Amino acid sequence: MSPPYKLTYFDIMGLAEPIRLLLSYGNLEFEDCRVPRESWPNIKANMPFGQVPVLEFNGKVYHQSIAISRYLAKQVKLVGKDDIEDMEIDAIVDVLMDFRSKVAKYHYDGDEAAKEAYAKTLFGEIVPFYLEKLDKQAKENGGYLVGGKLTWADLILVGTIDYMNFMAKKDLFAGAPNLIKVKENAALVPTIQKYLETRSNNHRC
Amino acid sequence: MSPPYKLTYFDIMGLAEPIRLLLSYGNLEFEDCRVPRESWPNIKANMPFGQVPVLEFNGKVYHQSIAISRYLAKQVKLVGKDDIEDMEIDAIVDVLMDFRSKVAKYHYDGDEAAKEAYAKTLFGEIVPFYLEKLDKQAKENGGYLVGGKLTWADLILVGTIDYMNFMAKKDLFAGAPNLIKVKENAALVPTIQKYLETRSNNHRC
Questions:
Q1: pLDDT tens digits, one per residue of B159-176
Q2: What family does the database annotate (chains A, B) (predicted)?
Q3: Is residue B204 part of a domain?
Q4: Which of A72, A85, B59, B177 allows an S-S link to A22, with CB 3.0 to 4.6 Å?
Q5: Helix B152-168 vs helix B177-187: angle between axes, to the nearest 10 degrees?
Q6: Cβ count within 10 A of residue B139
Q7: Burial (Cβ within 10 Å: 0-12, 13-18, ≥19) of residue A92
């Protein structure tokens, strides 16, 4: 029998890694379908709004990585203790996505002159601004982003750090000890530890 | 006594209009604090992550417009019937935000040559792509975005249409009859109708 969840994305961490982490955290069995780039044009046409990742289960295809992550967080009980805490989690997740998109803007800019000009703002202002505020929040919450305990916001961070460093071509988080602590705390969970130690890029559909 | 909610944003619809709609829908009294542009530098320094809108209540300041909207949707009961429907709402809200940001990229581009080049892709490909898929979803859901009934996803759309048209300098939604129907259906709710008829830009802090 095939696993109940089928995740479709490219053969990278990218936007799917938080979903892989959440599924792994909860011991939810999933098919980790990694589409080779050459197959993408054919698959794209069948994706809702032409994008991946998508998660398929019970015969339906669900899209948007953060919407999927929030759904899975409810299933594996990594949400807040009430509506207020859920709002705080949602807010910091959207901050992380804003931060990621500002780094992505650098990575995906094909115009070398514009890229160089933007690099000054990105690395001189934007990155330090976000890191200082995010690190402060992680410090105040004892090595977690919200509520002093592990929530799906932490797994969004853990699943996005490597992708952001890859896009920035440097270790963005080296000077943010409390964000590193968030990653370390998440890795103390046996299911997360096991996933991080055994994850591979070898599975293809 | 001051109202329980204080919303702080600029004197425009922008990212705050869905929040104003949700508060108004639920008859939740709020102070609609609109900051003049000249006061912004002083206020920015005190905002979480340097941005507005923020919503203040019970002595705390909450940020990120979609996180705030989702919280308010829970309070006024405009959420889905279960976790799956909530994921579908979250997904379409994130699609609307992706769509908005692609229009914003055009509006805020200060380089006229780059702007003209991007306009071809935006109006020739991106806008038709999103409108066709969004309109189809609204048609399948009987003039709503999810679940055949009013949810906060509809109010995100209603609150974003004018801002997007302003940024695009044209009526983007003229050829999307089912999205127009979403707006008409929302306006059938007396509290929404009253807000849309009486909203003003006159309140300043």
A1: 999 999 999 999 999 999
A2: Belongs to the GST superfamily. Sigma family.
A3: no
A4: A72
A5: 120
A6: 14
A7: buried
The tens digit of pLDDT for each residue in A112-171 reads: 998 999 999 999 999 999 999 999 999 999 999 999 999 999 999 999 999 999 999 999
What span, in angstroms and rounded, lies between the C-alpha atoms of B41 and B73? 31
Please tell me whether residues B113 and B182 are part of one structural domain: yes
- State the helix-helix crossing angle for A152-168 and A65-75, rounded to 10 degrees: 150
* A82 interfaces chain B, CB cutoff of 8 Å: no
Q: What is the pLDDT of residue B1?
A: 61
Do A87 and A175 belong together in one domain? yes
Per the structure block, which two tokens stand in for A117? 């000009």
A17 alpha carbon, distance to own chain's centre: 5
Q: What is the DSSP code (8-state) at residue A174? A: T
Q: Which residue range forms the structural domain that includes residue B27?
A: 5-77+191-198
Quick check: A205 and A35 in contact, CB under 8 A?
A: yes
Is-contact B117 B108, C-beta < 8 A? Answer: no
CA distances (Å), origin B77, targets A12, A63, B188: 38, 24, 17
User: Does A146 share its domain with A54?
Assistant: no
Distance from CA of A146 to the nearest CA of B (A): 13
Chain A residues whose beta carbon lies within 8 Å of the beta carbon of residue B156: none
Q: Does A56 touch chain B (CB under 8 A)?
A: no
The alpha carbon of residue B48 is apart from the nearest alpha carbon of chain A, in Å, by 8
Q: Are residues A96 and A163 in the same domain?
A: yes
Total domains, chain B: 2
Least CB–CB distance from B87: residue in A62, A94, A95? A62
Do the domain assignments include residue A204? no
**CA distances (Å), origin B133, targets B87, B130, B138:** 18, 5, 9
User: Is this complex scored with an ipTM above 0.90?
Assistant: yes
pLDDT digits (tens, 9 = 90+) for A46-70: 999 999 999 999 999 999 999 999 9
pLDDT at B205 over 80: no
In chain A, what residues touch B68 (CB-CB under 8 Å)? 87, 91
Would residue B13 count as lying in a domain? yes
The CATH number of residue A72's host domain is 3.40.30.10
What are the tokens at A140? 């105040």
Residue A203 falls inside a structural domain: no
